[in-house]
Amino acid sequence: MRDSFLIFGSPKIEEDEIQEVADCLRSGWISTGPRVGKFQDMFRQFIGSKHALALNSCTAGLHLSMLAAGLGPGDEVLTTPMTFAATANAIIHAGAKPVFVDIELPSMNIDPQLIEEKITPKTKAVIPVHLCGRPCSMDLIMETAARYGLTVIEDAAHAVEAEYKGRKIGTIGDITVFSFYVTKNLVTGEGGMITTDNDEYAEKVETYGLHGMSRGAWKRYSDDGFKHYQVVFPGFKYNMMDIQAAMGIHQLRKIKKYHKRREEIWNRYDAAFKNMPVQIPPPGEQNTKHARHLYTLLLKLRDIRVGRDRIQQALHEENIGTGIHFISLHLHPYYREAYAYKKDAFPNALYVSDRTISLPLSARLTDEDVQDVINAVTLVLDRFSR
Ligand SMILES: *Cc1c(COP(=O)(O)O)cnc(C)c1O
Description:
This protein is of the alpha/beta class. The protein has 13 helices and 13 strands.
């Protein structure tokens, strides 16, 4: 057994980030400033979108996207229940109602075939989530959305490097939101980014994200002289700091290298687990690029004597940290009670909730770490197999 605990989702941080953060601190400009401007420019070029706007989280970005798209009380927004709470909470924060659509298997993404039957006259938007970094079936989603006049807001928290039919995720829907939380593929501690080609959305996101102060208000103390600002909306405090962007600038430069490393780990896991009582992630769909964010096994419970939680605990005892992505939102008390969801309302999401377990996949992992994970999973599955 390994002698130290392997933390799930621990980020790779190197000297270049550390140096840039130190330089930022020494510069005296630590909140939103030149480094945020640079990070936004780099991200915009990386994605190929017209706008890229940095924020202090993806959750903030999802909230502002709802407001920019004009969603509010009385509106319904379709999304997957197989996601993090942020996706549904942002809809609720805007005053709208989340309406879940079951996932498809094996992709675990929102089932595009089921979207249409959930559309009512109140439906205004759909939020596909590219779970684990696997792009959703965007053609069908965009086509259905266009037919019903729905805004498409993509939750790309897992999908910064993902591509769909030659297009980067971040250039397809009306607005796309990325996360730079510590466990994600690109890390700024806390942080997020919105990409859009829509000038009106971009301007609203920028204004609403900083107290509703008119454009460029963060520059008001810069050396081109003090500028008065005007409040045009009761906005929020969602701006990214330069300390965060200092990390992001270097993380973005290394994004290909880190993706390649996670792909190597992914392939080692695939080879190691393919004959065990687990379902390994399905191969990527043709003509797409998987962002390799989460390596998620589905336990074959018929071949195992215990439930997923016991397997997770046993791995913990072997000093291997794992994650659960996710317990379907309709099973959580708030959504279950607020929207009167039955347990079997989303059979595929329920199926995944009981079986899913994510293994460490950070670019930080050494070959020995990866072998430790493989050994521990092998040992634990052997112990509990029928
Ligand atoms: C992490 C995550 C978010 C929220 O990101 P933050 O930057 O922590 O706000 C949203 N959606 C999904 C699917 C996530 O995994």
